[in-house]
Amino acid sequence: MSQILTIGDQETKDEHEFYVADNGIGIGIEQKFHAQIFGLFKRLHTQEEYEGTGAGLGIVKKIIEDHKGRIGVESELGKGAKFIFTIPKDAIAPRAG
Predict the structure, then answer these.
(1) What burial letters (b/e) apply to 18-29, b meaning 16+ CB within 10 Å?
(2) Residue 65: in which H helix or E strand, if any?
(3) Average pLDDT, the chain
(4) Distance CA 80, CA 94 (A)
(5) What mean pLDDT do residues 2-15 have?
(6) Is the pLDDT of residue 94 over 80?
(7) How far is 40 from 59, CA to CA, in rounded Å?
(8) Which of 24, 38, 59, 76 sits at a 20 to 30 Å CA gap from 52?
(9) Separation CA 70–CA 86 (nearest Å)
(10) 12-51: pLDDT as tens digits
(11) What is the spatial distance between Cα 91 and Cα 97, in angstroms, rounded to a whole number?
(12) Which residues, at least 6 apart from 42, have a Cβ–Cβ distance to it below 8 Å?
């Protein structure tokens, strides 16, 4: 099966909503892992199975939350995954220092 990646967005009154969906690694994520995958260094596979540190989704979550947004996943094992995140229209990036 070839991997299919879909990216999209929509605008509501108060926020921008984006999504990234695919049928990639493992072809979906079991619901019992949905909250865990956003933890820093959380991996569902071994280093030998797939490269990476498990930091990616944790970093993405932190950036989105710093901008007062939300992130979540819709997924079933065998059916792919869809990651959805929002950023409020009035979000202001936090200042360094």
Answers:
(1) bbebbbeebbbb
(2) helix 56-66
(3) 77
(4) 33
(5) 88
(6) no
(7) 7
(8) 76
(9) 5
(10) 999 999 999 987 655 777 677 667 677 655 555 555 555 5
(11) 18
(12) 36, 54, 57, 58
Q: What does the angle CA 91 – CA 72 – CA 34 come to, to the nearest 5 degrees?
A: 150
Confidence of residue 7 (pLDDT cuts 50, 70, 90): very high
The C-alpha atoms of residue 87 and residue 64 are separated, in whole angstroms, by: 7
Alpha carbons 18 and 11: distance in angstroms, whole number? 9
N- to C-terminal Cα separation, the chain: 48
Residue 21 C-alpha from the chain's centroid: 9
Residue in this structure with the two tokens 């990234």, named with its chain if needed? 20
Compute the distance between CA of residue 81 and CA of residue 97 in angstroms, rounded to an integer: 37
Q: 46-57: per-residue pLDDT in tens?
A: 555 555 556 778
Residue count of the chain: 97
